[in-house]
Amino acid sequence: MGTQQTLGTESVYKLLIKYSIPAIIGMMVNALYNVVDRMFIGNIPGVGPLAITGLGVTMPIVTIILAFGMLIGIGTTTNISIKLGQGKKEEAEKLIGNAMTLAILIGVIITIIGLLYVDKILILFGASEKTLVYAKSYITIIFLGTVVNLLSFSLNHSIRADGSPKISAGIMIVGCLTNIILDATFIFGFNMEIKGAALATVISQTVTAILTMAYYLSGKSNLKFSKSSLKLDKRLIIGVFAIGISPFSMQIAASLVQVISNHALKTYGGDLAIGAMATISSISMLFLMPIFGINQGAQPIIGFNYGAEKYERVKKAYLSSVAVATVILTIGSLVVQTYPEIMIRMFNKDKELMRISVEGIKIYLLMMPIIGISVTGSNFIQSIGKAKIAMILSLLRQVILLIPAILILPRFLGLKGVWLAQPIADFIATLITFIILFKEIKSYNNKVEGNIETNHLKGKCIEGEFAIEKNK
Questions:
Q1: Which residues of 276-292 are buried (b: 16+ CB within 10 A; e: fewer)?
Q2: Which of 4, 259, 280, 336 reaches 20 to 30 Å from 406, CA-CA?
Q3: How far apart are CA 66 and CA 62, in angstroms?
Q4: Which residues cross the membrane (predicted)?
């Protein structure tokens, strides 16, 4: 328990560095799975623009798979941190096996449904006659690898809560390097084109899953794995879903937005506009993934200290994370607004696709400097176990505000309206999140004062008892 106990005693700043940097590396590596695929696919001779557009059509499906990974992974990780904070190590250990079983069951179901209805799903998600062949070639292989995808993502999260963030990041780096090497080999070496990118992704995720399970099966983990923990515990699963439902809903919402966005992009900008969005979202991911890494680094610190009622440490952990997130996103915004062509050229050199992408990215990422409050805020509320509020905050930015904006604005502004929908939703969601965060953090002042007063009274009582004993 020594490793976990440091979450309640060691300097908050040191803990954030210790947990966030490996998590940031892990998330950047995770982003590179998709980004590298898109870079290689966009540069396939002769078919690059259409191939990257086909990949853009599959984005909602990949996001749905990620949603289930987050449902299991974040739900499990948060519960492990809270259980450890409460001193319930046995329940924390049982969560590891339950996460494995959930990943396998859900993965098999997604694979079967995906393969049976692949054509219908892709057309529903915005594929045209020209892009369907590329989208189907890619996503069929991705569906076949869903189980290892979920196992690698969900269990890698829990390694951080187990007190081994460096191992977690190391496993992700090995997986990413495998993906990059295999991408180049399969796409250009074996001329497998878009199929090669999908196969490289699945193989690298398999490597990650094997290494992640080996960590627990080796017996070197702080939380010990046992076969009996594979049997699903209804009470623990409800707890996992209660916490995981917020990031799950956010990703499902993101998938829904991608579907609606794909149709709007195809209507007002043609197939290439979907390809432009795939490029823009990849660049956006490069800047947002460090923030998700900060969230993951802060999560066990916030969860443990909240469970242990150390509210000053909870407050310090969050305020530090949002400050760093804001600095990173402000720098990212300056790069995007100043040098958009340089970044987009990494994905495709087609002149028309470049023109659409440059116009789109400048508008789409306009609110990047302030969204750190929204992104870290919903994670903070989730980390303290307030799943319903966290879910609402997540849905604000992705559904409640964004979908109406995508449906309404293009009718008056055309393609520009599709790009403008995101920054408008970002601004309003950030404002609302700020108000909720301000009230939550302010309430800790009273709790801290209450704890001090209680401790003071306890001290007085002990002094009084000591005096009585002395007089006797």
A1: bbbbbbbbbbbbbbbbb
A2: 336
A3: 6
A4: 12-33, 53-74, 95-118, 138-155, 167-190, 196-216, 236-260, 272-295, 316-336, 356-377, 389-413, 419-438
Q: Show the CA angle centred on residue 468, arms to residues 465 and 471, nearest 5°.
A: 150
Q: Where are the alpha helices (DSSP H) in 162-270?
A: 165-184, 193-217, 234-269
Q: What is the pLDDT of residue 1?
A: 46
Would you say 367 and 288 are in contact if contact means Cβ atoms under 8 Å apart?
Answer: no
Which residue type does 256 have? L
- List, in order, residues 6 or more apart from 236 with CB less than 8 Å away: 79, 91, 94, 95, 98
Q: CA nearest 202: which of 65, 52, 371?
A: 65
Distance CA 328, CA 209 (A): 30
pTM of the model: 0.76
Instruction: Break the chain into its structural domains and give their ranges.
Output: 2-463
pLDDT at residue 171 above 90? no
How much is the CA Rg of the chain, to the nearest whole Å?
23
| Of 139-143, 144-148, 448-452, the least confident | 448-452
Tell me the CA distances in angstroms from 402 to 360, 410, 431, one per residue in order: 16, 12, 15
Amino acid at residue number 280: I
Residues 360 and 176: their CA atoms lie apart, in Å, by 28
Q: Nearest CA to 365 among 322, 331, 395?
A: 331
| Identity of the residue numbered 391 | M
Q: What's the rounded mean pLDDT across residues 339-343?
A: 90
Query: Alpha-carbon distance 226 to 202, whole Å?
Result: 27
Q: Is 113 helix (H, G, I), strand (E, B) or coil?
A: helix
Q: Locate all alpha helices (DSSP H) within 185-233, ordered by sequence.
A: 193-217
Span 274-323, pLDDT tens digits: 989 989 988 998 899 889 888 888 888 888 888 777 888 888 888 888 99
Determine the Cα–Cα distance for residues 221 and 214; give it in Å rounded to an integer.
10
pLDDT of 98 strictly over 80: yes
- Tokens 């000053």 belong to which residue? 312
Lowest average pLDDT, out of 152-156, 195-199, 431-435, goes to 152-156
Q: What's the DSSP call for residue 187?
A: I
To 10 degrees, what angle do helices 387-395 and 234-269 make? 10
